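S.,

As promised, the zinc ion run. Input:
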Amino acid sequence: MDHTDSTYPVQRSDAEWRELLSPAEYQVLRQAGTERPFVGEYTDTTEEGVYSCRACGAELFRSEHKFASHCGWPSFYVPSAEDGVEYIEDNSLGMRRVEVRCSNCGSHLGHVFEGEGYPTPTDQRYCINSISMRFEPKQ
Ligand SMILES: [Zn+2]
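Predicted complex:
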């Protein structure tokens, strides 16, 4: 996975990311790992608030767009802002998927799937790792 793209506003060296993030956070955010299903701290949260990038703090998703997909990871049907995330075609594991990254720092968040039939306004499922985000409850 090449994360050296120089267009991201937040630029850090690999050594800086390792220092800033826990080993588990680093593995998902910077090496495009995937958290095991049903263990993430935000899988079933329904509290009102904002989910931000755990690597750089940029807002990514809102609780009002979160829905119960029962897939084992936090699921949203739309990001807070379309330019808050970016999409990269991912052909790893023999599957054609669309990776979702933070557009501010380039960190890996998860994948987006569409046309699965969920009763949401977009029929999209942003399947996001809990460990890629930090939740801030509404004050
Ligand atoms: Zn970020």
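The pocket of zinc ion is lined by residues 53, 55-56, 58, 102, 104-105, 107 (CB under 6 Å). The chain has one domain: 14-137.

- D.
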